[in-house]
Specification:
Largest sheet: 3 strands, antiparallel
Order of helices and strands: EEEHHH
Radius of gyration: 18 Å
Strand content: 5-15%
Number of strands: 3
Strand order of the largest sheet: 1-2-3
Shape: elongated
Structural class: alpha+beta
Helix content: 40-55%
Length: 79
């Protein structure tokens, strides 16, 4: 019978191209960018764009993305 160790240490649930984690070293990387750098230098919208598109946005891409987000969260008066 297999030994039940408890917890998920050593268990790979899925491979991801979005992030890499090294729990022993306290490292979290999104799409090649250290999370600490993103938290310090990037906005929520920039990180969301990075996760969705794979690269940080240009200023034009960021502006269009913010417009898309604003449109998507608009509440219709009909209902």
């Amino acid at each position: 019978m297999a030994e039940n160790k408890g917890g998920l240490e050593g268990i790979v649930v899925a491979r991801s191209e979005l992030c890499a984690i090294d729990g022993q070293k306290g490292i979290l990387v999104y799409r090649g960018y250290d999370i600490r750098d993103l938290a310090e230098h990037s906005s929520y919208e920039e990180v969301a764009y990075l996760l969705l598109h794979g690269d940080l946005p240009t200023s034009e891409e960021l502006s269009a993305f913010k417009d898309d987000l604003a449109e998507a969260r608009a509440v219709s008066g009909e209902g």
